[in-house]
Amino acid sequence: MTSTPIADLWPTLPGADTRPEAAYRLLQAAVESFAERGFHATTTRDIATAAGMSPAALYIHYQSKAALLAEISQAGHAATLTLVRGAAAGEGGPAERMRRLVEQFTVWHARARTVGRVVNYELHALPEDAYAVVAALRLDIEREVSELIEAGVAAGDFQVSEVRTAARAVTSLGIDVSRWYTERSSETPEELGRRYGELVLRMLGARV
Amino acid sequence: MTSTPIADLWPTLPGADTRPEAAYRLLQAAVESFAERGFHATTTRDIATAAGMSPAALYIHYQSKAALLAEISQAGHAATLTLVRGAAAGEGGPAERMRRLVEQFTVWHARARTVGRVVNYELHALPEDAYAVVAALRLDIEREVSELIEAGVAAGDFQVSEVRTAARAVTSLGIDVSRWYTERSSETPEELGRRYGELVLRMLGARV
DNA sequence: TCGCTGACTAAGCGCTTGCTCAGCATGCTG
DNA sequence: CAGCATGCTGAGCAAGCGCTTAGTCAGCGA
Predict the structure, then answer these.
(1) Contact state of A195 with B164 under an 8 Å Cβ cutoff
(2) Which pLDDT tens digit goes with each residue over B72-102?
(3) Given CB atoms, is A43 within the 8 Å cutoff of chain B?
(4) Packing angle of the helix pair B113-121, B65-88 (nearest 10 deg)
(5) Running DSSP on this structure, what letter comes out for residue A89?
(6) What is d(CA B60, CA A11) in angstroms, rounded to the nearest whole number?
(7) For A161, which DSSP code?
(8) Do residues A34 and A69 touch, judged by C-beta distance below 8 A?
(9) Does A146 score more than 90 pLDDT?
(10) CA distance B143 to A93
């Protein structure tokens, strides 16, 4: 592990380079705390203390506790969509691209599992407007996977009876990794990614 | 949908038939509320009001809010383990039994998705002793699936390079259904179960 | 009729929550 | 040097939390 998950997320935030370092520490503390205890069980005092400040300092950088969650969730979803788009649009046939997509999607959810937990399991705590943004991004991710499966079917590489169900299964496998993967897991994220890539290709009826 | 998820759960509770109906209503309200908002965002007033009582009445039937969660979680896990054991021990070869297991596991997580959400996503809110009980049940479920895969490999029905990873993938697919399935989903739980059964068999390298 | 029990409520206690505000040190600018 | 913006703190407010308490009342065996 060469970088923390939040460091992967940080560059995707708008205006990240002009933001004070304190905002970064707050975001990091919030991700960790939301992932471990959930949004509602996390107090502003938890976040502020972990970031080395008083509770009041939080409100200089973020409007509210919910604004922190919204920022994390939107950046996390944007990063995931970018990852998926990059893999799906890369070189090779549908099978090769799908393998790469699953590998990277899995690695991301294993490595950035704290961000992943917030992104996937704290949606219900989002304010309505932030939820709308995030829901659209989720649809885009799902659509990207569906289209790649359709391309594989059209090329005769995949054999799938219901594309939407298959797409659900593919994303589902990856998302759930952020729930169960821990640093004490016997597989590295990369190993897991390779194995999941293999399993998914077989699931889609590709000759491996 | 002929019965509510909680009705499926109720018979598995110890001494359910001697328990007053009010306890049933409280449990039902708690499941619904925990599933929708999460444990910490749910107040004892929410639960009591939904069950048609004052907040104080809750404490006649349950020791605490956490005791309600523990009851739901333990009963839910016990029911799931029973389901998995029943399917794995039934008639037929490994492939046939695995198909049945995935079908039933999926149907359960789609139909009883409110219970499923509490069971799978509120573990962190459990008191330590209740968590220990539940963690043991989860291990048993995982082991049951692993052993069925091993039997399939031994019989030459499955081709799997890493049994534990494959078992993770199988349970993972089913568990995640409780996260995304809604009553507005286009597939019935039974349709989804059949399709997931098919996908899993291919994933495990079974000749379908 | 009686005392007793079990299910329940109205009121509220002690505490924690998200968030605010007056004030303070620091460092940049004219 | 004064003036001011910036980043922050200590103290604390209003609201809401889990849970308790004192008391009501219907039902029941003797």
Answers:
(1) no
(2) 999 999 999 999 999 999 999 999 999 999 9
(3) no
(4) 110
(5) T
(6) 53
(7) S
(8) yes
(9) yes
(10) 37
Q: Which of A114, A117, A172 is CA-nearest to residue A145? A: A172
* φ, ψ (nearest 5 deg) of residue B3: -145, 155
Residue B152, classed as helix, strand or coil, is: helix
**Span CA (B193) to C1' (C11), Å:** 51
Nucleotide nearest to A57 (CA to C1'): D8
Residue B185: pLDDT over 70: yes
Contacts of A109 (CB under 8 A, 6+ apart): A116, A174, A175, A177, A178, A181
Query: What is the pLDDT at residue B205?
Result: 96
DSSP conformation class of A12: G
The 10 Å Cβ neighbour count of residue A174 is 29
Tell whether B184 is within 8 A of chain A (Cβ). no
Rounded to whole angstroms, the distance from the CA of residue A59 to the C1' of nucleotide C24 is: 18
Question: Which of A39, A166, A168 has the CB atom closest to B180's CB atom?
Answer: A168
Tokens 């709308």, residue located: A132
Of A36, A37, A173, the CB nearest to B172: A173
Q: Look at B172 and A168 and tell me if their CB atoms are within 8 Å.
A: no
Which one, of A174, A8, A156, A182, lies nearest residue A78 by Cα? Answer: A8
* Alpha-helical regions (H) of chain B: 5-9, 21-37, 44-50, 55-61, 65-88, 94-111, 113-121, 128-154, 163-180, 189-203
Structure tokens at B145: 């699936």
**Nearest alpha-carbon partner for B118 in B56, B188, B42:** B42
- Contact between B89 and B100 (Cβ < 8 Å): no
Using a 10 angstrom Cβ sphere, with 0-12 exposed, 13-18 middle and 19 or more buried, the burial of residue B14 is exposed
Residues 6+ apart with CB under 8 A from A159: A153, A204, A205
User: Are A42 and A34 contacting, i.e. CB atoms less than 8 angstroms apart?
Assistant: yes
Contact B38 A125 (CB under 8 A): yes
Rounded to the nearest 10 degrees, the angle between the axes of helix B94-111 and helix B163-180 is 30
For A64-110, the pLDDT digits (tens) are 999 999 999 999 999 999 999 999 999 999 999 999 999 999 999 99
